[in-house]
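Teaching note: in complex prediction, the entire set of molecules is handled at once rather than each chain in isolation. The prompt given to students was simply: 'Predict the structure of this complex.' The entities are:
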Amino acid sequence: MDTIRTAIRNFVARAIRTDLLSDTDDIFARGHVTSLFAMQLVMFVEHEFGITVENDDLDIANFSTIAGLANLVTRKRTVGLPESVLEGRP
Amino acid sequence: MDLQLTHQHEADRAEFRDFVDREIVPHADRFDLEERIPRDTIDHVAARGYFGVSIPREYGGRGSDMITYGLLHEEIGRGCSSLRSIITVQGMVAHAIGRWGVPAQHDAWLPPMAAGRRLVAFALSEPEAGSDPQAIACAATRRRGEYVLNGRKKWITGGQIADAFLVIARAEGKPGAWLVDRDAPGLTISPIRGLLGVRASMLSELTFSDCRVPGERLVGRLGFGLSHVAFSSLDHGRYCVAWGAVGIGQAALRASLDYAGTRRQHGVYLKDHQLIRRMLSDGLTNLAAARLLCYQAACRRDAGDPRAVIDTFMAKYFASTMARRAADDCVQIHGASGCSGDYPAQRYLRDAKIMEIIEGTTQLQQLTIAQGPYEDVYEKVH
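The expected output is the structure of the full assembly:
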């Protein structure tokens, strides 16, 4: 989870050009991102973490903060894992 | 890095070229003059499966990669930019439905769209909202499980023949995207004629007056209609326009080379005049550069790399300005003949100018490319 948050934080920090963003700050509220950033953010989490963002995931809470994005990635990765991995079986 | 196309890419390109040479090029000037593409031509495109090149195989499309999709747009764009525009908007809407729709929408819309049995246009621009889509005023009011649309849309490519529209509007202040049938009560469709270029793309203005749309026609969720649905569709369209502009550049350069190689003035062929040769050299070099930018965008799009968004901006910016210059030189090389209806040079120039305006003006590309994260901008310099 920490690794996921760090990767997302680095990507977001590059876009809004600040390190002063907490995990629960609204990424879009500062108004420093371009109109394309929401789309780039989706592509980033898909490309970086191997998930697919779908209709069901379109909830503002999933995209407005680093913590929300990290939770979304963690949840979708967990859903995608086979039972053997979830249960720790070889 | 391997800049060679695969055998499959070469085969697909040869197929596209053959179709365009036989069925599009001989008629494109007439399409332009009549400001329409005949239904039988649309049906031939549909029969070839070209409306579904980017749609997954499970929905009846070809499921091709982005290079193949680009090659289709280059070749169709070489023959007729208006037809390329119709294919592009079908792809934009299919992308929106496939990316953000629910499974029931995938099943209901993608198979007929892939087969070309259902043409769907993209309705974002309004009389007062062009380059600034945040300014859209078209309103959707929720009422007992349905939405009621009121407002206007303008410059809607393919609107004269579309069976449905993906309409971007606001409900409760939040942007959304709705699939609206052509025959929906309260929707009036008015053709727009007399355009400078892409005259056969059958543009329309739409007027919604208490137009009722079932709730299940919402694509994506409320609040995501611009940032995710519309902007990813525009990104898709921008990619197609970039390749289409390469197609215009290719057509213009071919015409310039042909004419300069057969027309004699002052005792020598035009191609042997140094100033003409410079035009041809610049044109060929810029055409190759534009195509390489398109290939780069294609590779990153296939990889799902977020840098593909700006790569696509760069490809569209460069390719559209290249096409306009190549077409301008093509008219110049043809002289008076280039200004007449006897040659397609003037059509190339008129169509190329439109490429600098649609899917983001040249000025919007110039504002955006250097606006991204500094690291990404620096990467472009390396």
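Point out the following to students. The interface with chain A takes residues 100-102, 134, 220-221, 223-224, 226-228, 231-232, 235, 303-306, 308-309, 368, 371-376 of chain B (CB under 8 Å). Chain B has three domains: 7-119, 121-222, 226-381.
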